[in-house]
Amino acid sequence: MKVFLRILPFFVLGLSSAFATEYNNLYWAPPNVTVGGKEIDKILNFIFWLTLFVFVATQTVYITYLVKYRRKPGVKAHYSHGNNFLEIIWTTIPVLIFLGLAIYSNRVWKDLFRDPPPDALQVNISSYQFGWDFRYPGADGKLAAVHVKEITPENKFGVRADDPDAADDFTATELVFPAGKPLHILLNARDVIHSFYVPSFRLYQDAVPGRTISWVWFIVEEPGEFQLACSQLCGSGHYNMKAPIRVLPQEEYDEWYAGKVQAAAQARALETQNSVQTAAN
Questions:
Q1: How far apart are the first and last CA of the chain?
Q2: Full-prediction pTM beyond 0.90?
């Protein structure tokens, strides 16, 4: 007990530093760039200091008793049945800690994945072996609905041809969005389970075949370049399943978006012209 009381202040100091800072790169994690990631880091830091404290406490007691009660000439071993009071203490404390973590983390999850803001930019992300496709709303700002049962190699986003919102949607091979604005992603998988994983966003979410995961949204505070990776073992090419992420200032994003909308409109006009010529011939 004396040993425990001696190391208790260091544990309290570690916990206070964990909750006083937004992040401190424990576990060699990259700096957090999202608003919600700060709460995730608090949980990670608490677990780090907790496990460090438990490791130091148990090893200190172990080594102390190993030395103090080592075999000595002329000293007989003494059988100890145990101490019910101590057993109740070291059973109750972990139960309370785990319950506290479960309740707190559940509240954080609810706060992070509540209904996205109405002005959030929606992007449909379709995963496959071994890559990512991205679909953006066009000039009307409306993203066509996803129908997972209609996903095929030819219709990889599961969009119905008669959906008026689909007419001006465009696709990309990278995830681009403005800093400081909410991004609402709709996740699909076309073959096996994949996962949307960006360490700097403190975000991990599985994409499951036959489902649309629609509760993930976040805000990246500063512009930067990141990498999307699949962290779910999905086949032989899993190691190379990546996609670039660019978070741009609002002006640069508006310029990128306008260029994509214009290019998509020109491509549709050309397709329509070719169809008319083919029909005429």
A1: 93
A2: no
